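Journal club prep — side note

Before the paper discussion, L.F. wants everyone to see what a predicted structure for a comparable chain looks like in C-alpha cell form. Sequence:
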Amino acid sequence: MRNSCLLIGMTIAITITSCHETDKTVKPDVVAVHMDTTVKPGNDFFLYANGAWLKQNPIPDEESSWSIGNLVNEELYKRVLAINEKAVKENAPNGAGRMIADFWYSAMDTAAIEKTGIAPLQPEFDSINSIRDIPSLLNLLTDWHSSGISPAFTLFVSQDMKNSNEMALYLYQGGLGLPNRDYYFNTDEHSVSIRNAYVLHIAKMLRLLGDDSLTATANAQTVMSLETQLAKASRKLEQLRDPHANYNKFAITDIRKIAPVADWKALMVRMGANKIDSVIIGQPEFFKALNTALTSVPLDSWKTYLRWNLVNRSAEFLNRSFADQDFAFYSQTLRGVKKQRPRWKKMLDTQKGLMGELVGQLFVKEYFSETTRKRYDTMVEAIRSALKDRIEKLDWMSDSTKSKALIKLAAMKKKVGYPDKWKDFSTMQINKGPLVLNIQQGYKWYYHFYMNKLGKPVDRTEWEMPPQEYNAYYNPSNNEIVLPAGIFTVPGFLDNELDDAVVYGYAAASTIGHEITHGFDDEGRLFDASGNLVSWWTQEDERRFNAKAQVMVKQFNEYVVVDTLRINGKATLGENIADLGGILLGWDAFQHTEQFKKGQKIAGLTPQQRYFLGYALGWLGHARKEALANQLLTDVHSPAQYRVNGPMADVDAFYKVFNVQPGDKLYRPDSVRVRIW
C-alpha cells in the first residue's frame, strides 16, 4: 500500500489498536475532520480531503515528512517500547525475551558506545590494510557482504524468476553512496548541490577516522571518482523495473566472459554458495565496468573506498561524532530533516530491521484479533471477485489471454495479518556488547539464512515483512499478496469503529486492490500463475496493454512536483497502475455492501463520498521539498498528493460523486482517461 514492491518488502511500521481497549470519548468523524471544504474537489481532491489536517499539523523538525503513517507509528513505538522494557525487566535467561533485552541494552548504552568509539571496527580496518593484490581485494569485497556492508555490487538470494520452484543467487549493480545513479550526473541545481555536499561529507567522515584535512579532501575525491565510474555503468530507475532485461543467467564458469579478473567459482564457495552452478546477473554491463575498475583503479584507491564504505554503513551505530555527521548529510541535506529523532525511536526501527518478526510474535498476541483478521481476509475475496468481473468484461483482451489471467487471479495466494509459521531466530548472536557488532551479527544471520536456501525447496509460507509493518507487497514469484496487520489501522480508531465506506477506500482500495492489481501491472503481468517469468499474452494483447499504459506514463510525466522536477511516469508506472486498479476494484466491491445500498449519510457525507475520502485518508500527509526531490529520483512511487489526484482523474465514478466538470483542474476528457483493468 504505502510503499509496496514486487520482490522485497520495505520497512515502515505501524500498529493495530488492541481489541481490549475502550474509548468512551466522542470522536470526530474519521474523514470529515480532515477536510478543507474551501477547496473544490474537482480541482484538488487531495487537499479537499486532507487540507484541514495539513494546516494543523506541520512537519516536526525531526522528520522529513509527516503523515498518517507517522501518527500510527507513534502508537506502535509505545507498544513495542513496552515489549522491550518488559523483556529487560523480566531478564529471561534465554529465548526471544533474552535476545530482545540484550539488543535493547546494547542499543541504549550510549556511555559504552561513546567509550569504545570505532574500536569494534578495528578488525575490518586491519583487513583493509592487509589487501596486497586483486584476489585479496575480491575476497574482502565478498566477505563484507555477509556483514551488510555491500561494497562494489549487490548480491541476494531469491526465487529464480523463470523457475519459481528454485532459489537463485542474484548479482546486481551497487556500491554507490548517493541514493541513485542520477545524482552523479544530473545537472540541475539540486543535484549539483547534493553532489558537492556529498564529497564534503565523505571528507568529514574520513577526518573522524584520523585523516588530516588535505588527505581527507583528496581521499573524498578518490571515492567520488570511483563511485562515479560505477554509476556510469549503472542502469536508471525505470530500467531496473524490466524483469526480462534484468534477468541474465550465467553458468558460474561463464561469468569470466564479462569479468575475467575474478575466480568466480572460488568466490562462490567463499560466499557459501557452493551448491549452485549458475547465477543471475541483473546488469552484465555493470560487472564488465567493475572488472575494468578492479584492474585499472590503484589498490590504495580501493582501500580508501572500502574505509569509506565501512564507516558509512556503520556510522549511525557508532559514537556521536560519526552519527551526527551521518545525520547531517543523509537526513538534513538529502531529506531536509532539522533535528534528530529520539534515540529510542531510531533503535526500535533498527531492531525491527533485525528481528522484526521476533518482536512481531509478541505484538500480534496483544494487538491483532482474529475478528479483525477475518474481516480483511473476507475483503480480499470481495476484491478478487471484482477483478474477475472486470477481466471477463474487458473489450481489449482476447479470450485466450483472459482465460490465463483468470487462472492467475484464482491462484493468487493471500497472507493476512501475520505468518502461520514464524522464523527461528535462535541462532542469531545478539548480546550486550557493542551495538555495531550486533548489527553485523544480525546481517550475518540473514545472509546465511538466505544462502542456506540455495539447493533446497522453496518455502512459500515465509513473509518478508513483520506483522507490525505499515506496508504490504505483491510477490510475483509466489503470486501472492502479503498484508501485515499494521497496514489496516487508522490511528486512534478501533477497527469496529470504522464504517465500510471508509474501510473499503482506505484498506480495500489502497492496499488489497492495489496489491492484487500489482499482479497485472506492467511488471507483474509478465509472471504467470505459478510465478514464472514467461510470456502468456498474445502479441496483440501486449500491444494493446502497452498502448493503454503509455497513456498513464504521459499523464504522470506532466506533473511538476518540486521546482522543475517532474514525476517519472515510466519509473512509477507499476505503482500508478496499482493505485488506479485498487480504487476501481474497491469501488466495485463496495457497491455490494449494505452501507452503499442504504445510502445513509454519516457526518453529512454519502457512502459514495466517504469511500473516496477513505482512500485519500490513506495518503494524508506532506513532505519537505528536499524529501520530495529525493523521492522523484529514487522512488518508484509518486508523491502522496499525486497518488490521490492522479488516479482519481481517471475514475468515472469520482466525476459523478463529486460533480467534476470541464474546467476543473482534475478534469480529463473521457478520451484521455486511463483504461486498463
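L.F.'s comment for the group: The two ends are 18 Å apart (CA to CA). Keep this in mind when we get to the figures.
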